[in-house]
TrEMBL record:
Entry keyword Phosphoprotein: no
Keyword Transit peptide: yes
Name used for this protein in its record: Cysteine synthase A
Phylogenetic placement of the source organism: Bacteria, Pseudomonadati, Pseudomonadota, Alphaproteobacteria, Rhodospirillales
Domain called Tryptophan synthase beta chain-like PALP: residue spans: 10-306
MF-aspect GO terms: transferase activity, transferring alkyl or aryl (other than methyl) groups
Provenance organism: Thalassobaculum fulvum
Length: 338
């Protein structure tokens, strides 16, 4: 018998998928950890579950309590669904610029969704700070209490990846993995997975795939937190060293532009049948760059973070893409859009 116990029992143990075009192009074996197959549809189910379990274990989260979080969407979806399965209410604060698809999903999950303007972290109106204040208020008034998930600086997030994602990759490859690379939102996936892999073999090369507009590439490449440009990707890019990113053993940082990312996303869908989001495109392009650096014959693992339908109105919308001067999926382009 092979039976998983509800939502929570279905998080993790995702397959590793060999990516054909990326592997052929580089002469390496490029593998994607299929995190979009988690029951809530993204890599963030792992963080949501780890954060909730940690709060339960510490006695901070009590039955019937409220979970509050600031999120680009996926962590909120994971928290809402774990919350539904375990009897917690969720209040989710999201920058209004995030995709309509993720907001709709949060509402249908039953989350109390609060949209705020997208302002920098240093602004008190930033979604992260707003979520902290709401959690502090609700902790005083809710009969069963409230917690702030705090995915950026709560290291239960990266511990979850350290305990699950890293060891899974090691076992699924029989330890024959030469490189691991992904992008950073909170840093939980990169740092937790990298720490677990380095502990098993410190020669495994850890790469960072950073979108434009993020300061993390410059931090690891040049020692200064400096951002340039921007990206249409969601859930990744960071302007500070979060607690989950502290001590991340990054060997090879790369920057990936949206113009590099989009053809990867389009080709994965049209030629490999994998409908994936923008951060996955950044990750796969980063894996190609790392493979080119290491040379043929290596095995490189990256993360397939979530599905493309979560961004249909952006990534696969010729009007939106043309407005930004970005590549358009030719099979969707009717040629009329401005
Ligand atoms: N991709 C997507 C689509 C995400 O939502 C996130 C999380 N915000 C990430 C990648 C990055 O993961 P992490 O927070 O673990 O760095």
């Amino acid at each position: 018998m092979d039976i998983r116990n509800g939502f929570v029992g279905t998080v993790g143990n995702t397959p590793l998928i060999k990516l054909k075009a990326a592997s052929e192009r580089t002469g390496c074996t490029i593998l994607g950890k299929a995190e979009f197959l988690n029951p809530g549809g993204s890599v963030k189910d792992r963080a949501a579950l780890a954060i909730i379990q940690d709060a339960e274990d510490a006695g901070r989260l009590r039955p019937g309590g409220v979970i509050v979080e600031g999120t680009a969407g996926n962590t909120g979806i994971g928290l809402a669904l774990v919350g539904n399965a375990r009897g917690y209410r969720t209040v989710i604060v999201i920058p209004e610029t995030q995709s309509q698809e993720k907001k709709d999903m949060l509402r249908l999950c039953g989350a109390d969704l609060r949209q705020v303007p997208a302002v920098p972290y240093r602004d008190p109106g930033n979604y992260v700070h707003v979520s902290q204040r709401i959690a502090e208020e609700l902790a005083k008034t809710e009969p069963n209490g409230a917690i702030w998930a705090n995915q950026f600086d709560n290291t239960a997030n990266r511990d979850g990846h350290y305990r699950t994602t890293g060891p899974e990759i090691w076992e699924q490859t029989d330890g024959k993995v030469d490189g691991f690379i992904c992008s950073v939102g909170t840093g939980g996936t990169l740092c937790g997975t990298a720490m677990a892999l380095k502990e098993r073999n410190r020669d495994i090369v850890i790469g960072l795939a950073d979108p434009m507009g993020s300061a993390i590439y410059n931090h690891f490449a040049h020692g200064e937190l400096k951002a340039e440009g921007g990206s249409i990707t969601e859930g990744i890019g960071q302007g500070r060293i979060t607690r989950n990113l502290e001590g991340a053993p990054v060997d090879e940082p790369f920057q990936v532009t949206d113009s590099e990312m989009l053809p990867i996303v389009f080709d994965l869908l049209r030629h490999e049948g994998l409908c994936l989001g923008g951060s996955t495109g950044i990750n796969v392009m980063g894996a190609i760059k790392l493979a080119e650096k290491l040379g043929p014959g290596h095995t490189i693992v990256t993360i397939l973070c979530d599905g493309g339908t979560r961004y249909q109105s952006k990534l696969f919308n010729p009007v939106f893409l043309k407005e930004k001067g970005l590549p358009v999926p030719e099979w969707l382009d009717d040629g009329d859009a401005a």
